[in-house]
Amino acid sequence: MQQKLNLYNTLTRKKEEFEPLHAPFVGMYLCGPTVYGEPHLGHARSAVTFDVLYRYLKYQGYKVRFVRNITDVGHLENDADEGEDKIAKRAKLEHLEPMEVVQHYTNVYHQDMDKLNVLRPDIEPRASGHIIEQIEMIQEILGNGMAYEVNGSVYFDVQAYHKNNKYGKLSGRVIEDLMANTRDTEGQSDKRSPLDFALWKKASPSHIMRWPSPWSDGFPGWHLECSAMSRKYLGTTFDIHGGGLDLMFPHHECEIAQSQASNNHTDAAKYWVHNNMITVNGQKMGKSLGNFINLSELFSGNHAMLEEKYSPMTIRFFILQAHYRSTLDFSNEALQAARKGYTKLMNGLNVLKKLQYPEDGAGIAPDAKLNEDLLKLTEDCFRGMNDDMNTARTIASLFNLLKKINSLHLGQLNIAQLERGTFDTIRSTYGELVLNVLGLQEEQVGDMDDMLHLVLGFYKEAKENKAYDKVDAIRAELKKQGIVIKDMKTGIDWAYEE
RNA sequence: GGUAACGUGGCCGAGUGGCUAGGCUCAGCUCUGCAAAAGCUGCUACAGCGGUUCGAAUCCGCUCGUUACCUCCA
Q1: Strand B closer than 7 Å to the CB of A372?
Q2: Which of A176, A204, A344, A360, CA to CA, is 20 to 30 A from A293?
Q3: Going from the N-terminus, what domains does chain A have, and what CATH number goes with each?
Q4: Would you say the ipTM is above 0.90?
Q5: Looking at strand B, which nucleotides approach a protein CB closer than 7 A?
Q6: A78: nearest nucleotide, CA–C1' criterion
Q7: Dist CA A285 CA A497 (whole Å)
């Protein structure tokens, strides 16, 4: 059995056993959102994927420092020199201060992530709050001869860097190919080479967001903030750097270059982890294609592509049912299936709460084979997690375990046939994986047991009196509340409707 | 054009050489006043062609198809 977590490292293109640099401490950085618009399903996937990694590492006993930034400056519309800052553009459109835009969409992001039960990071730094650190880093890179200043702007010199380093090591790009295929800047740029990227940009007179620097009043380049902030809070080398696959090039490639060219002289992170994209009809969901669905639209059902609204936990389960490195295709059918699967898993949690291990032993001998099988199922759950965080496999194993749990509840299997230890292991594994690691939570009203106990009393009475019209009425009323009655040999119980 | 992936049953989606993925859907059975729930059983698979192998969805080659990155994107 794989005891240890294995992670696919984009840098080596291999699954590697996770070994922290300074156990038990783990440093983890995730590229957060640029807060100029509503978060969509793609943001959710990235956040949920690394939330599960964060949770699982903590579950394994590591002391994790998780940093996820907020990009509030420097992210330009395009690579051209006249590219507009995304946030400034939005601010102009809505007649707001840029920081109002930033605050608004940061709040929305937090609210949506809270709904998805994504844990808040330990540190959530903003790019605009770390201008000094970014300037320092630029000075280091200039000092090491791998950047140059032109007209108040500073650019990273990719070719100078490439002499002693390998630009393209993360994304697998070949610099010569990039040179041959990159669009010509037609002499309009200050850059020496189209591959070079901005570390500092001089602000045009109309540009609102600006800070003083040794070179000009201006603003930092997009790639720089992650390098500066990850170093400040996690050190020159840390364990895990995450992000969406679309950030691999150029963003993460540039981060590595900046880190190597600064006084760090490291790749920044030991493990580079990338989640794949969400697709719609096989095409990437993205801003440029205009086929993205905001989280608020998913939660409310208010979007032309949506047949109904989908709860946050349905979304979370939908994301977790696929492996994070596969593309995941959006469809109403898939989300409806996810909703039912999620509910089934949560009903299992309620069943488990009610199961009691018989104290008297009841004189029944434990079934060795059964115990072995059940323990194997619990191990399978972890085997899935350890194999590159394969939550799809973990969930499949949980469903296998759930069948057994339901059989115990139904009396088809006798709890007394289990060893006490087996029973406890099942209960804790199922509960902790579902709630703490996968981060799924109950969405329905919490403790309805007391109230339902009363109703079920009436139900039982009506049944015993064969007052079936009354029985049917109770069932119908509860069904309206999303509760279904389960008549079993062993008694009457309830469950959420799937 | 360059680079990297992918193509699994009605739908979604795991699975890198031999051992049941799983969820949803559909059909049947058990239970049941009727249901529901749950359990059990079944139904459709590995794009095509060739090769390696005792044995391939899994390795190799070719063909077809799809996508991503190379410009902002999680």
Answers
A1: no
A2: A344
A3: 6-275 (3.40.50.620), 295-437 (1.10.730), 449-496 (no CATH)
A4: yes
A5: 1-5, 11-15, 21-25, 31-40, 66-74
A6: B72
A7: 31
